[in-house]
Design a protein that fits this description.
The protein is built from 16 helices and 16 strands. It is of the alpha/beta class. The strands form three sheets. Strands 3-2-1-4-7-8-9-10 form an eight-stranded mixed β-sheet, sandwiched between helices. Helix 9 packs across helix 11, helix 9 packs parallel to helix 12 and helix 12 crosses helix 13.
Length: about 425
Amino acid sequence: MKHHIVVVGLGYIGLPTALVFASKGFHVVGVDVDQRKVDMLKRGKCYLREKDVITLLEKVIVEGSFTPTTEINSSIENVSSVIVCVPTPVVAGEVDLSFLESVLHVISDNIKKGQLIIVESTIPPGTTVNFVKPILESSGLIAENDFYLAHVPERIAPGNSIKELLNLPRLVGGVGPKSTRVALELYRKVNPYVIPCDSLTAELSKLAENTFRDLNIAFANLLAMICEHVGADAKKVIELANTHPRVNILKPGPGVGGPCLTKDPYMLLKCGERVFGIKLIDVARKINEYMPIHTVALIEYALKKLNIPISKAKITILGVTYKGGVNDTRSSPSEKIISELIARGATVVTYDPYTKETFGTKRANSIEEAVKGADAVAIVTDHPEFMSLDLSLLSKLVRHRVLIDCRRLIDSEAARRHGFKYYGIGLGVVNE
């Protein structure tokens, strides 16, 4: 059996994973159903806007250690390991394992003795043993005896994926001791910080870390709204609270986006439906899902102070990706904010230097074009480019000097010196 690896699913997790293994002496076949992506990769072109990913892709394509393809059946034959990185979306609170199931049946039809099957996709507790294992064993081969199976949850953030794949501790959870040992041997070749456990513990740990972050952000958002109500500055309150060595409150904002924090808590929520206190997770999700609505209310309030009906306003949205410095728009708070503004009759223009996505609005080609004639400008994404806006220039281009800083990137006093009415999450209406 060739010492090759197949990575199934070349998205924000799968592609960096494939490239890291390809750079460490493996020949990696990357499989994806999207022909456009595969064609780009064959030409050494990257659809992820990450410098390290782009550099590594160019290197492994030239070296011939990475082969992209849409063909999965022949790719799985006679390879040592298969790593599955397909989406496991949550729809209406229910996880959709159909993509994973489809891939597992293909693997089952082609699996050989001695192969290691890894699931990196985020999955509900018990899925590896109760869902993945039976499908693979329908081949007639038995896990731990004939092949090895483990869950190694992805643990990277878009924008910093290569460094994290190489250095962030990885949980390696096998369905048995043999599977754990074999999976550890593989991952140690790319990352020395591997932690053995069982598959159930690995599944729960991944969900726990993302749910904790969601809860933390929800508290930050709740605290921000309290501060708006009583007249305090949440940015300062959190900064001071975090001087305590055992406190680490995250930043409030216009909502939570991306593929993990909007999804993983629901998997934990579902498996603990009868556990006392489980509604804590649900409440946190509701707070974070409410923040785009709160942002729109803040924009509407700012316009009303100038007697501008939102239905007649031109509003500029700076940033449509879910976080700064990446081109990922999945579950971005901007989408809901824009949708709400359009529903209320506003004219919306967007600008984002990282993506062409507009969520149905007119896209500007520059900040200057975006803000020209605007009644209000809202900074929704914390892109580096928005941290040093030329307020003097912007003040001359806008129709009304209203700035809603959802990420608190701009110094409020500097904005006011340039004539802006400044509003921010956690500051808002009481500090005009």
